[in-house]
Amino acid sequence: MTMVKTFPRGGVHPPACKITAESPIRTAPLPPEVIIPLSQHIGAPATPIVKAGDKVLAGQCIAEAGGFVSAPVHSSVSGTVVKVDTFPDVSGYRRPAVQIKVEDDVWVDTVDRTPDLVCASDLTPEEIIASVRSAGVVGMGGATFPLHVKLAVPPGKKAELLLVNAAECEPYLTCDHRVMLEHAAEVAAGVALLVRALQVERAVIGIESNKPDAIAAMSAAVAGRPGISVEPLRVKYPQGGEKQLIKAITGREVPPGGLPVDVGVVPCNVGTALAVYEAVLKHKPLVERIVTVTGPALAEPANWKVRIGTPFSWLVNLSGGMPEDTGKIISGGPMMGKAAPSLEVPVTKGTSGILLLPASQSLRRPASPCIRCGRCVTVCPMGLEPYLLSKLSALSRLDEAEQHHIADCIECGSCSYTCPSARPLLDYIRLGKAVVMKKLRLQGRK
Amino acid sequence: MMKNSLVVAPSPHIHDAASVPHLMRDVVIALMPAFAVSVYRFGWGALYVAAVSVASCMLFEYLIQRFLLHRPSSLNDWSAVVTGLLLAFNVPSNLPPAILVFGALTAIGVGKMTFGGLGNNPFNPALVGRVVLLISFPVQMTTWPVPQGFSTGIFDATTGATALGILKESTGTVQEAMAQMPSYLDMLTGRMGGSMGETAAAALLLGFVYLLVRRVITWHIPVTIMATVAVFTGIFWMADSTQYASPLFHLLSGGLILGAVFMATDYVTSPMTHAGMVVYGIGIGLITVLIRMYGSYPEGMSFAILIMNAMVPLINLYIRPRRFGEEVKRG
Predict the structure, then answer these.
(1) Residue B180 and residue A182: Cα distance in Å, rounded?
(2) Distance (Å) from the alpha carbon of B155 to chain A's nearest alpha carbon
(3) Among A220, B65, B72, B257, which has the highest number of CB atoms less than 10 A from its own CB?
């Protein structure tokens, strides 16, 4: 067996729990109403261009990008705008969004909804980036960074490699896995478009080795495309962390505070590659995504193809309804996902999964004193000392926390996961990191 | 909990199964093979010291937390059991009960609770207890019963010197001393005098393997201690094998394996990083050999661990993990 690549420092091995790995993607029926948030990406919220009473078509732009680091938002359904207002998002905060009553399913006529594979023509990088931008494509692995910004490599930096993140190291989630099995050719086409947009020679698709079927499918799909290859990765969390993935595949380390492009790499998620294909060659804006709806007690866990704005409750009902003893609703995976206060929140461009944990798995163990075992230090993939950072944060000694590189924390949760005293290490580190990052940003502006 | 009420907490939402009581229980399990051999070798004495030591450690922990600190009891974390067992392993099996109880009070009271309990103590509590006993009751602490199984009572067992004691007292060449010594096979299987739990090297190593397999400890501290002792004594032995004992003798004698595997690896009092653990292990190995060769005590393991315990904050200060991306590597 060939050596499987991985990042060398730290990491943990949570149980995979990929109960939906064998479940083919199903198209979710349309809900009666959708709520489409205007801020589904990092950066400025989009500016709405529709008002209550307007008729919209699926795929129609309803909000324009609010700046360079922003993305337009499109209606995922056809129907009537009920209102433009604020609605609770997954954190419980109210954010601007457009509520649309669904009527039929009529699409903007430029969108090609046939399953036929369109081959890349001779598009220029500028044309590809323009299509990506106007389709509102953002990073779909969770960070939701507007993709066109990533594709515009800053002057003085050079991209050499496109790194497609298909590690899917979060337990439970299988949306990327299913995309690779069922849409390998489209993903490969999307990767080829990104390669051309970035004008790089090489693209590598990194897949954890517990998905041999996906590795085989993607290897076959990229066989005819020179420069694009598939790299199996060792199963270890956080293998899909941007910096860890770059380290595993290229051996390069993104410097502290730096960007992947500083080491010549542009990373993107495998779902994003699919969205790029659809945006550029099928003229379809980002209005749908695959969402894994899962949980140990859920009756019919599944991978759903969902319109953006669909309420979580709609999907959970399609998957057999919320189990009686549900104690926690998580948007995303169990390691980095966000706990939602209710099911009445919409699916956004960054929603990879909805995980329902039973009450018995929802409460943390009570914390006991630190026994200084050093496990948090051993598992930290960033080479930090979580026990120290959390203590400094708790004591508000943030200058010292900054000296000990609290800003480097990627919030992967390996420290809290592994702590035998069940101490809330990452909670405190997040508090301190937020203050330090704010200070660094203010300094940067001066 | 109210029906349909949901927990909203920051990630991560899942947790590894290992907890402090699990880890401590695994240490107790890992000590069991050596304890079984000791019971076979030392008979009633081994059972008596273990029972008295564990019971009094638990009792003192409870009393101190209840009446002096006014804190909820932490007996269920199993750390007092581990301290009690390790203290028992480190004393002769015929130690008078009053002395043993005093040792337990020192271990838990002075070694652990004065600093705030588990996690805050700079020194290994069992070793604090042991060293205070060694200094306060040198005769009782170095009167070693000869292994006789259950054939004699606890306090009327015949006594003899330990292997290291013979070596230290010997005035002739090392070969003459070796003639009175247990064979290597005896040393592996605990057929020699010594503290209750330190004599059966093979059984202690079995416990080491268990701890490694269960990922309770890593190899770093025990292996560096043993390697340092082997290299350091090996140099002397190769220089003059008539004056110095072999590395194998040093590894199998005294409390070396017990200390390296079970005492030096105490989480609270050892360094946080693997590199720090290696430095700490080398320090313990060197100090142990220096005491054995030049000190007035035949055995130096306990002192070596306590001295290096004191160095741990310094090691943690200077030996830190390498920060990701600190030096940009171009692959």
Answers:
(1) 77
(2) 38
(3) B257
Asked if the C-beta of B17 comes within 8 angstroms of chain A's C-beta atoms, the answer is no
Tokens of B204: 């202690």
User: What is the set of domains in chain A, with CATH numbers?
Assistant: 28-111+285-361 (3.10.20.600), 125-281 (3.40.50.11540), 375-445 (no CATH)
Instruction: Report chain B residues whose CB lies below 8 A from the CB of A355.
Output: 13
Whether residues A420 and B320 touch (CB distance < 8 A) is answered with no
Q: A416 vs B15: CB contact, 8 Å cut-off? A: yes
Nearest Cα residue to B153 out of B48, B256, B80 = B48
Q: Reduced to 3 states, what is the DSSP secondary structure of residue A109?
A: coil
Q: Are strands A47-48 and A25-27 parallel, antiparallel or unpaired?
A: unpaired
Crossing angle for the helix pair B201-213 and B20-42, nearest 10 degrees?
160
Q: How far is B274 from chain A (nearest CA, A)?
A: 8
Angle CA A427–A358–A177, to nearest 5: 80
Question: Using the 8-state DSSP alphabet, how is residue A111 labeled?
Answer: -
Q: What is the pLDDT along chain A (446 residues), one digit of tens a residue?
A: 457 899 989 999 999 999 999 999 999 999 999 999 999 998 899 999 999 999 999 999 999 998 889 999 999 999 999 999 999 999 889 999 999 999 999 999 999 999 888 886 789 999 999 999 999 999 998 789 999 999 998 888 999 999 999 999 999 999 999 999 999 999 999 999 999 999 999 999 999 999 999 999 999 999 989 999 999 999 999 999 999 999 999 999 999 989 999 999 999 999 999 999 999 999 999 999 999 999 999 999 999 999 999 999 999 999 999 999 999 999 999 999 999 999 999 999 999 999 999 999 999 999 999 999 999 999 999 999 999 999 999 999 999 999 999 999 999 999 999 999 999 999 999 999 999 999 998 988 76
Structure tokens at A64: 């324009």
Q: How far is CA B149 from the centre of its chain?
A: 24
Q: CB-based contacts of A145: which residues, under 8 Å, 6+ apart?
A: A41, A42, A43, A138, A139
Q: Which residue of A has its CA nearest to B319?
A: A385
Give the nearest chain B residue to A408 (CA atoms).
B324
**B51, two tokens:** 């029972």
3-state secondary structure of A86: strand
Run of H or E including A87 = strand A79-88
Give the list of residues 6+ apart from residue B208 with CB closer than 8 angstroms, or none. Answer: B30, B222, B257, B261
| Pick from A12, A357, A408: CB nearest B13 | A357
Q: Which residues pair with B318 in a beta bridge?
A: none
Give this complex's ipTM: 0.91
Q: Which residues of A touch B15 (CB under 8 A)?
A: 364-365, 416-417, 422
Report the candidate in A356, A312, A367 with the shortest Cα–Cα distance to residue A334. A356
Helix, coil or strand: residue B293: helix
**Are the CB atoms for A289 and A74 separated by under 8 Å?**
no
Interchain CB contact of B13 with A (< 8 Å): yes
Q: Which residues contact B34 (CB under 8 A, 6 or more apart)?
A: B89, B190, B197, B200, B203, B204, B206, B207, B258
pTM check: above 0.90: yes
Task: Enumerate the residues of chain B whose CB falls inside 8 A of the CB of residue A253.
Answer: 324-329
